[in-house]
Amino acid sequence: MSRGVILYIGVSLDGFIAKEDDGLQWLEETEGEGDNGYTEMYDSIDTTIMGKRTYDYVMEHADAFPYPDKKNYVFTTSEQGSTEYVDFVNEDVVAFTKKLKGQQGSKIWMVGGSGILDAFVKENLIDEYIITVTPHILGSGIPLFKEKNPQIDLELVDTKRYGQFVQLHYKVK
Fold it and tell me: What are the CA-CA distances from residue 147 to residues 22, 132, 143, 150, 158 (Å)?
């Protein structure tokens, strides 16, 4: 039994995960309900994967590292080694993740960003898509999905409403 990779992410109605400047203010200002299902997802994982830009954004906007009880991998070409909470990885993210999926453990959360997401979609490495749609049409920004992806057939597991958010939960068939 291999470990599953989860994409848990917010997206505008027109398909953007951030503004061009990585801004998420529109997302943070949306009226949700409770933690919008975050704790349930977070409790199902033991590992996070993210790119360096996502890591830098998290560190810039959080008072403390938000995933201290998980194993955290940051993919980068500019840093090496580890911090208290993070291992910097200078390897191919797809090959590395395939190895991780073969190890014992809980689910893996692909936190971001768009480069890693695109590589994962192209290789069909994501097992569950938990996509929370926000009531915004941004017009431009960083798209959730880039072009030239393979067809991936999904099964709808659940839908939930959290205030102004609608969460769609799919598993890969």
Answer: 20, 21, 10, 9, 26
The pTM of this model reads 0.93
The CATH number covering residue 112 comes to 3.40.430.10
Q: What pLDDT was estimated at residue 1? A: 56
Number of alpha carbons in the 13 Å side-chain half-sphere of residue 146: 11
Q: Which residue has the tokens 């453990």?
A: 105
Q: Looking at the predicted structure, is the pLDDT value of residue 135 above 90?
A: yes
Which pLDDT score is estimated for 28? 84
Sign of the dihedral through C-alpha 100, 102, 103, 105:
positive
Structure tokens at 74: 């940051």
State residue 137's pLDDT score. Answer: 96
> What is the length of the chain?
173
* 9 domain-assigned: no
- The per-residue pLDDT of the chain, averaged, comes to 94
Residue 77 lies in a domain: yes
- Give CA–CA dist 79/50, Å, rounded: 14
> Residue 93: what pLDDT?
95
138 within 8 A of 12, measured Cβ to Cβ: yes
